[in-house]
Amino acid sequence: MTTSPFAVRMLGITKRFPGVVALDDVTLEVRAGEIHAICGENGAGKSTLMKILSGVYQPDAGVLEVDGRDTRFTGTRDAERAGIAIIHQELALVEDLPVAANVFLGRERRGALGLLDDRSMAQECAALFSQLDCAVDPGDRTGNLRVGDQQLVEIAKALSLDASIVVMDEPTSALTEAESARLERTIQRLVAQGTTILYISHKMDEVFRLADRITVLRDGRHVKTVDTTATTPREITGWMVGRDIAGHDLHGSRPRGEKLLEVRGLSLPWPEHPRGYRLKEISFDLHAGEIVGIAGLMGAGRTELLEVLFGAGEDTWSGTIELRGEPVRFRHPREACAARVAMVTEDRKRLGLFPDLDVAGNVSLCSLHEALRLGFVSRAAEEQLAAGPVREMGVKTPGLHAAITGLSGGNQQKCIIGRWLLTEPEVLLLDDPTRGIDVGAKAELYSLIDGLCRQGLGVILTSSELPELLRLADRILVLAEGRLTAEFSRAEATEARIMEAATAG
Amino acid sequence: MTPPNAPRSAPPAEVATAAPAGGAAPRLRRSTRFGLRPAEWALVAAIVVAVLLTGLVDSNHSYFRLPWQSLTDILRNTALLGIFALGATVVIIAGGIDLSSGSMIALSGTIAATTMLALAPKEIMAFKAVGPVVVGVGVLAALVTGFLVGTLHTWLITAVRLPPFIATLATLVGLRSFARALCESCTHAVVGTKSAQINVSDPIFKAIRDNVWIPVAVFALLALFTWLLLTRTVLGRHIHALGGNEQAARLAGIRTENVKWFAYCFGAMTAALAGLFYVANESVAAPVNQGRGHELNAIAAAVVGGCSLSGGVGTVPGTVLGAIFLRVVIDAVSKIIKTGADVYEGLIVGVVVVIAVTFSQLGALAKGGTRLLPGALGLCAIPTLALLAGAIAAMTAGRDAGIATGIGALFLLGLLRVWESRRSAT
Fold first, then answer.
1. Which of A89, A179, A482, B254 has its CA 20 to 30 A from that of B4?
2. B60-111 pLDDT, tens per residue?
3. Which domains does chain A have, with CATH numbers?
4. Binary contact (A387, B25; C-beta < 8 A)
5. B316-337 vs B213-232: helix axis angle to the nearest 10?
6. Which of B22, B231, B243 sits opposite A397 (nearest CB)?
7. What is the pTM of this model?
């Protein structure tokens, strides 16, 4: 099939953007039929490199060879024709169209009279899905599918293009463990059929399970390409950040204080769903100086639980919540704030950031009333207010009035945590706070959360990554389909036991 | 509730040292000069250029011969537009849209007039003074109506969950009709004959008509108030936050429905205030035509002034300048073509909006990121634009000028197209 042992060779690729060199003399050689992982922190140049491979950008210098032939792409169509398909981290699907229409979007089949031939498209789509061993109905509205199934739609799209090289940009960042496992099987099937896979991921366990070889990028430069068998996750993360990350656990030694929160028999109905409830009979306690981790697959009710505690949910719930011994029933986040409960939401961009406000505005938002002088917001007082957390948490920003959107994910998250710390909370709810944040920033956030806890805050932490919970939490609660299926002390908890409880019916 | 050991956001030392770089957070210079952003200075320049050009091109040179009268005209019109453009600005920054302000103007005038008619029917019908108390009650009734309409909008949007566009589209159509029906049934009940308008000749209204500084002062005070509100109050920050990211605003503990309530009431009440000045200006409350279509002028002024219709972005100085610019250009055209200028008002507003927004994107176009005339669409756009320019010139300046303008536009756009193609080829 291929004349060259390499499916793709990118030699000496350099790409400059105004003010930055995104890629500096990067070389990437991908053997035909292998799974090649690309690792690097956010901003290391992974996405830029992949955008050059898929024709979105043109390199300023360097050579691109596909199947041993010198190639120059002037657009994404050229790359598609050369058999390269890319599945972006943010899925590019039209949610209101049926699945089959998305698979053939832009390349619609037409029948007699030039009208759309929906039947042949649906048939071929169904064939593609059976090839992927999954049961998605081509006629379903795409927006109704779960994220994992939507990703399969993208993969089906790539297959329908007869792509011989498939690039996946952090495909599992929004998937449950079960969906990730299915994706891994799909990838292995594709490789068995002769497809070459380029796999971008932060998650070391996945990379080490899947990849034949790993390339590490840092600050736009190529650091190393190694066989997976010849290295360790620790070594890879070390190359990614350019220093050794201390991986020591941060739980256990914190003094546990008085009881802050007592939840008893909490249930949240879900009328339009066959299960009937989002949460059922949840009971647990939270003490000052303690981090309670909540594990669970996507859809298990982690976010719903935190939303009830924060008064952010729309539906009425039953059961009791006591805060410092007093029963509370928040109907709006405002009331939770007043009672010193704070929540850092998942999905920073959608639920946390205000893109039109600057760094200071984003940090001071919840405590702006403290910057009032004679009833008006004083700029100086607001800056002073925001400067505190910005300085103490080491937010890397060009200034207090810089655009928040220009900051890296980790620094944005620090700003949002800072916003809530200014409200002087006693209970801090963190919903998957390190999602989409690179390794170095994660470590900083871990020690930040640990430090807050040592000052007497009670923290409830959810995460889609088990190692994170195991590293930080004193106790771990496991949710499965809205029910509390297990509670482990740190000593009892292992990944295997948590997974077992999380998948319990 | 407050515990003795409430932490005050001071993470321990090891956290602070974990990220040493950039912690000092130096103050970044704001991108304003004497309080205005670059785009706003461009508007100032555009206003000056438009005024100077009009003074030169206008064959009567009325800007030089009768500067005071010209200034009065422009100021009055700007104030009348600006008052409810400020309301539109607040609604737009809050992430909404209010299409109903033109109808609100009509309703406000009608409410004031019918209230006065009910309290003093003889004086109204005899074109006599009704006295300050009756006028005061009428004005108050109009403003309260503004509050009620704003409340209705907020209820439709937050409780019924209509999109703002639909909710205010309904009141755009409905309120004008309601105002007319109200006018007719009130005149019928009080006087015995139906009338679709009520004359208002009280000296207070006449004084407002004859003293241009009154609407101008009201506009200036309202602008100052709105500016303080948006830049210096917690509510103003919450308005920006709501428009920028509504879900995040709610999750940050902001009562978003209350902020919306304020925004839509402010929008409707400024329109109600403007409606009173419309009545004073024309000495009549005429619900059929008063303020018809003017909601779009207000939105245009806000957009020309830099508001983003997706919310979260906009300034009071921008809207004030946008309103001045719109009125200056409309006045310029009426000075230059002398008669029938009101026919072209909509056309002018449309063209100004397109040019102003295109202007703000010139930077991207110049850098070569995008093309103004791409592909087949660009080819078809060239004769479309040339025809439009030619037709406008022919109607306003005669046939020959029309033909010359059309051919000139065709030639210039063709050149632009060739230049763009050359550039993207290299």
1. B254
2. 788 888 888 889 999 999 999 999 999 999 999 999 999 999 999 999 999 9
3. 6-241 (3.40.50.300), 259-340+425-502 (3.40.50.300)
4. yes
5. 150
6. B22
7. 0.80
